[in-house]
Amino acid sequence: MTMIKETMANEKKYGLMSDVKVARKITNLTSYSVLFFFSALILFPILWIISTSLKNEEDLFSLPPQIIPENPTLHAFKQVWIDHPFLAYFRNSLIVVSAATFISVTFSAFAAYGLSRFRFRGHGTFMAFLLASQLFPSIMLLIPFYKIYMTFGLINTHAALIITYVSFTIPFCTWMMRGYFDGISKDLDLAAQIDGAGRFRIFRSVILPLSWPGLAATTIYSFISGWNEYIFALVLTQDEEMKTVPVGIGQLVGEYRIDWAQLMAASLYALIPLTIIFIFFNRYFISGLSAGAVKE
Amino acid sequence: MKSAFKKRESRSGYFFTLPTLLIVFSLIIYPLGYAIFISMQRTNLISEWKFVGARYYAELLTDAEFINSLKISLIFAFFVVVGNFVVGLLLAVILNQNLKFATTFKIILMLPWLLPEVVVALIWKWLFNPTYGLINYILNTVGLIDSDVSWFDSSTSALAGVIFVATWKGYPIVMIMMLAGMKNIPSERYEAAAIDGATRIQQFRHITLPGLRPIFLVTCILETAWWFKHFTVIWLMTSGGPAGATKVVSISIYQQAFGDFNFGKAAAESVIILTILLAASYFYSRAIRNDND
Questions:
Q1: What is the pTM for the complete model shown?
Q2: Domain residues of chain A, as ranges?
Q3: A77-294 homologous superfamily
Q4: pLDDT reported for residue A84
Q5: CB atoms closer than 10 angstroms to residue A150
Q6: pLDDT (tens digit per residue) in B262-272
Q7: Domains of chain B
Q8: CA pair distance A183, B91, nearest whole angstrom
């Protein structure tokens, strides 16, 4: 009796297995087709950026469009530095974004540790506010910021943009970091406390060294947000010498004739710092973000 | 004894949190309050300051042009968020199966997130160029169109175009969030379901989706807010045209403030948007909570 039951169960199991195998092959095929389709949709414009940047003026407007440039040239990559103050744009972007990222990550790590380890009055309100602050139309802050910077004579300064970018990224960074710290066992704090370490020392020497993925994720988030920001930089800087890279690239269009090759060359240059940051920190990114973002 | 401990705990909490609290207060709460103050003034921010009370609010709520730009923002945000979730969730589910080369695909599929909005907007503007753009050339070659289409001269295709580009740029963050959420669903649940003979689709419906609910809610709120107030891609591709067909509220505010120097009215517009977004997020969380009961 039990034997029969067993064979029936086995039959059912193995019959099912082979069905599952066929089904899996079909779904895998579908999966890869979907992945290839979307990857093509992503890579096609990116390859077009590269192709356009390598064209000379004639080939840019040749018909039909040349997918692979017939006379590839690096002219645009050189000329864009000469025709436009991109050196200044890059310097400004690097200063502003590095400073803002450093400030945001430092302060949000402190605050996140406080929020993760201690309960105090206003704790819940502050947490809710951090999330809610993402709802404020950034454009809503544009007008008061503009007025306040005007009053303090900060229009056309790095300080104005640094302050602005810190205000954008600090809430989300704090929120992400808190999730990350929550994932680190509180027993570690307790053990260090028993050994006589103060709260600040525990934070600096025990918790922080364990938090690289979280710090890396917030650094990437903060750097990319600042590096790509457009409208505040557009409004808050008016001197050519003070503009940032996105504003500089955007300006190439405002002119009478658009030099698409230079525009694409500048875009590729703008990607260099992002790529470096991404390569360095990518390993940590998804794990850091998931730890921080999944928790509420 | 216990209360002394609690007091010290709470003091340490303030010690770590206070600097950020001060930053947030002076950089977000104070300017927000200031924006509300400005919204009740007729002002050029320099010499003219005249209190007008709620006049701009009353004007805006009956202003057909403003209502229309709210409508366009709503349509834009709706389609972009839905598009981001459909594409992002689909790709996350596939990438989560740990197929071969999944990491390579993941990096490629994350690229749009890395690209500056300015670059994304301009490359697509170039691709959509009626005469020299690659898109018309391809569609012509395949035979889908027989003359060049001016994508951004018709109001429907202009709006569809910016929605497409915004989705192209925006889906990776949803994909990443969903992937992160899926990592937190215990694999035993899938194993148990597989033994019971559940198909992939059934597993997705009954395990993956419920497991993703908390992060789904947060992402949905953030996405709606981000795209409802979006500016850069649309501004660079269409400047709100043709004839206001893509004039979302952010563009309306920008033009009101820095084109017409009507800062009070622009601030009033932004306060109205904030109210709408807060209300929307409230209803979102209510809806999901009811769903859970």
A1: 0.85
A2: 2-53, 77-294
A3: MetI-like (1.10.3720.10)
A4: 87
A5: 14
A6: 899 999 999 99
A7: 59-292 (1.10.3720.10)
A8: 27
